[in-house]
Amino acid sequence: MRRLVHEIRSPFHRITVHEDDRVRTLRFEHNPQSSMLIDDPFETDIAYPGYFHIALALKPDASRVLVLGLGGGSVVKRMWRDYPDMRLDAVELDPAVVDIAREYFALPYDDRILVSTGDGREFLESTDGRYDLILVDVFDDDQVPHRFVTEEFLRLARDHLVEGGVVAYNFIGQVRGDLSRPFRSIYRTAHNVFARVWVFPIRPEVFITLTEERNIVLFATDVAMPAEDLLARIADRVGGRVTVPGFERFGDDLHVGPIRSGDVPFLVDDPPKRRRGRRGGTA
Fold first, then answer.
1. Tens-digit pLDDT profile for residues 245-271
2. Cα separation of 33 and 59, whole Å?
């Protein structure tokens, strides 16, 4: 039976933490954001955090990582544990979420993890840091805020990458179908900034078609790599470095067909006078 173990209304969300005998889950409003297996705090029953490790197949020597959107810290704490040479900066809009990640989701206190509170885009605009990987996992309800998917944001992120660096997104949407336009727009926009964009629509346990909603993890980079090389690196777990369960099969989800984008717009920043609403949620 699921039990409520924590509830708070912050300036940004109603936040709850529920658990049963196996899993603890963080929710913003009604949307699950993070989970943790109670017997193994570094494991989760949510699939997409493991797919971010595909970025290491594109940049195997990655040692400096920026994560925008902390949530329960699933991505940050796993990378911290699995890659001892990695330093991680995380930016979370909501201070209450940071406290919950520490208290209920075993986010470590360690010099290799620097957590900042505030807007992720403003953090990038103000820092002179350069990263191997920038992982974008920010949400306002179930959508990535517009200002995190525009050409201006992607160019800002690219300016903060080292040579061969990678930007990765978690996105909820469709690759094809009536509701696919938001994803296809970010795909088109990323292609306008980076030389290569890789798309992994995550296959759920119950089969659905590409016209149905799912998590889609997108990687944008200037690295020129044949698909067979990327798939080979995934299959051998980047030389055995990646321990995420099932990682060797993640290449099965690589989208290899065309993605229609000529009928969707490039995404650009709104004029300042039109920018309205909350400044980017977190996941």
1. 999 999 999 999 999 999 999 999 988
2. 27
Tokens 């930016």 sit at which residue? 91
pLDDT tens readout for residues 102-144: 999 999 999 999 999 999 999 999 999 999 999 999 988 778 9
Amino acid found at 63: S
Predicted TM-score (pTM) of this structure: 0.93
Name 169's bridge partners. Answer: 136, 218
CA–chain centroid gap for 215, Å, is 10
Query: What gap in Å lies between CA 251 and CA 154, rounded to an integer?
Result: 25
* Eight-class DSSP state of 179: T
**Helices of type H across 41-119:** 48-51, 55-58, 74-82, 95-104
Q: 2-53: per-residue pLDDT in tens?
A: 999 999 999 998 999 999 999 999 999 988 999 999 999 999 999 999 999 9
Helix axis angle for 181-193 and 151-159, nearest 10°, is 40
SS3 10: coil
- In the block, which residue shows the tokens 């409520």? 4
Looking at CATH, the fold of the domain delimited by 42-274 is given as Rossmann fold (3.40.50)
What backbone torsions phi and psi does residue 211 show, to the nearest 5 degrees? -90, 5
